[in-house]
Amino acid sequence: MLKLFLKMSLALISTCLFTTAQANTLDPTQPPSSNFDLTDWNISIPIDSNKDGKADTVPEKYLAKGFTIKPFFYTGQDGAMVFMSHVGGAKTSKNTKYSRTELREMLRRGKTTVATKGLSKNNWLFSTVSSREHKKVGGIDGRLEATLAVNAVTTTGDPKQVGRVIVGQIHAKDDEPARLYYRKLPNNTKGSLYLAHEPLGGDDQYYEFVGSRASNAKDPEDGVALNEKFSYIIDVKGHTLTVTISRVGKPDITHVVNMEKSGYDKKDQYMYFKAGVYNQNNTGDPNDYTQASFYRLVNSHKNYKH
């Protein structure tokens, strides 16, 4: 059994998208699915219990019935939905470099006759795809809203990888139109937030919200500390990707990405959201880990029938 310890206690700081009323609805005695609607998500966890060479995935029906597994996925003392993934964890496939404890959007909501990949009612499309394809999928365009605090990041390994974690994504068939990163370097007191947009088959385009994504970045004066709550919205309407970061007492920061030339208006480019911790370090100590606590998670799409 891995001996993994929490690095810091959770702080109770509200954000623009997180209200006291919402906080009171989070029951620390209940599993995550009692505090959050997880009926249209499954979860990957970084263990290989059936020895098939890849990380385990828990289907949406089992997740919704109250699945927990400490220290990877459970309800925290303040009712938060806690995700943890260590460097040495099992990977989801042979082509995946990093471990994760991450939710994957499943619009089929447990209906196993619906295919998980491709143009099916399990996934969604950008509205820029031909309208002839719209009826084949579960929704059009999308919006993911979350409030969270990153509690721990890796402190060992390659300097290019230390301290990185992805906390929200839009995943396409193969590429990622949006990846939201938090990064804190070991010698810094606060961390950075930045977005990566990956055009189809192209190089990543980066947009920094707070601080720098560089491996030698100075301590960001207005950075996000571990255990500090913040909120994000990842929103797609047509060719427009809009990502907004909110923090209590500070102005919102928004980046707008024009995806007109990104290639995702092709009919085979189905989409799904992901949220949790996707640990972006595979060179550190195997027991080194990243952890985040989610206080709000809401996904929505045009034409999505719950």
Automatic annotation (TrEMBL):
GO terms for molecular function: lyase activity. Transmembrane segments: none annotated. It comes from the Bacteria. InterPro entries: Alginate_lyase_2 (IPR014895), ConA-like_dom_sf (IPR013320). Residues 36-301 form the Alginate lyase domain. Keywords: Lyase, Signal. Pfam families: Alginate_lyase2. Residues 1-23 form the signal peptide. This is Polysaccharide lyase family 7 protein.
